[in-house]
Design brief:
The protein is α+β, with helices and mostly antiparallel strands. The protein is built from 3 helices and 9 strands. The radius of gyration is 15 Å and the shape is globular.
Length: 162
């Protein structure tokens, strides 16, 4: 296991959609160990594989003292009538937080390291995390979801950091 370096905005791996995990081998098992170790630090809610430079569909989370992972996640349900619009941040966009509209509830399905089906669901922060990490695996950053005026402000802040 290893604490991995977080890739930051500007790195092309963050804008590249991730490939599905086809074979659960030693490489994938090591990836999951690294995801779990790297997310298990104060202030970290979730971590997608491409944030540590690996283009596979996998992410980990650390919400309310629960640390876990899912391979090949896909969002299968979102609340349609209830939303949250609190500030959101990202390890790959360090130090910047902006109001981001997300569904209140999210349900994700995927598999574990044994190839068994996994369901992960939650409300509020967990729902936000699931949506945020699935976006990463699709090559998106939360900045892409910001309202036009806020996005302009956010992109200016990102440029000032570079």
């Amino acid at each position: 296991m290893a604490m991995r370096e977080i890739r930051t905005v500007g790195d092309p791996v963050l804008r590249t959609p991730c490939e599905p995990v086809e074979n659960i081998d030693a490489r994938v098992r090591s990836l999951v160990e690294d995801l779990l170790e790297t997310v298990d630090e104060e202030g970290r809610a979730g971590l997608a594989a491409n944030q540590i430079g690996v283009g596979l569909r996998a992410f980990s989370w650390n919400i309310d003292d629960e640390v876990g992972y899912v391979l090949n996640p896909r969002i299968v349900a979102l609340s349609e009538d209830e939303y949250q619009d609190g500030d959101e941040g990202c390890l790959s966009v360090p130090g910047l937080w902006f109001p981001t509209r997300r569904a209140w509830y999210t349900r994700v399905e995927g598999i574990d390291l044994d190839g068994r089906p996994v369901v992960v669901e939650g409300e509020e922060l967990m729902a936000r995390c699931l949506q945020h990490e699935c976006d990463h695996l699709d090559g998106m950053l939360y900045l892409d979801r910001l309202e036009k005026g806020v996005r302009k402000q956010a992109m200016k802040a990102v440029r000032e950091q570079l």
